[in-house]
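INTERNAL AUDIT FORM
Audit reference: QA-55
Scope: verify that the stored structure record matches its stored sequence.
Auditor: D.O.
Record contents follow.
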Amino acid sequence: MARSALLNVMVQAAMKAGRGLVRDFGEVQNLQVSRKGPADFVSNADLKAEKIVYDELKAARPDYGFLMEEGGEEKGVDPQHRWIIDPLDGTTNFLHGIPFFAVSIALERDGHIVAGVVYNPALDELYAAERGTGAFLNDRRMRVAGRSVLHESVIGTGIPFLGHGDHERHMREQMAVMGNVAGIRRPGAASLDLAFVAAGRFDGFWEHDLKAWDMAAGIILIRESGGLVSDLDDNQNMFDTGNIVTGNEKIHRELMRMVNGASN
């Protein structure tokens, strides 16, 4: 794929941080780990990766703002642009030696996501998209799956964990969905789950209680792959509501109907 200078900066930052994560992944048992909260870990690897991404993006676009999982929000001189960064999505997977984690970087312009990169360094899979130019997995064009029948579809989701989320609501939703689909998957890193929808690996996905950095890059990957993405009210308020549902036109509509029916 032909990348703009801006997207190249994002790709280089993600891959540089990813190389560091792979080295630390090989030493996962030796990492010094601290707790942010119940079952919500942060590691030295997480912080190092964020610094790499921050330094790379700051050097390339010094006036842009930042919204980061670990570092919080930093206002930029340029109020129109903001980087949204998750330096290690899937931290629990990482710390347990499960090779399903990613560096996620998105660029927001005037409140709209215009570019996104999700990189899984353990598998060397790079998902990248820029508004109006399509979405790509390792330079191969991606399209959302074309299945229109739910019982043939594999659906991704996120399961609430210790101290987080509404467990009873999720069980109602999962019961409603699982009886109508070929399978439900919960790999444990929302940015990659959304990238899987863009790549046609998952037919759809839904989750509650996400943050902007969990979703931002995945949103444009899906849109540029021809999919639909919204909150569960079929609006574009994912960052405010923290919930998301996505798929092709048919699966998005049916999945939203089922999840909402179980939640109400």
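Auditor finding: record pair retrieved intact. The chain has a mean pLDDT of 92.
Action required: none
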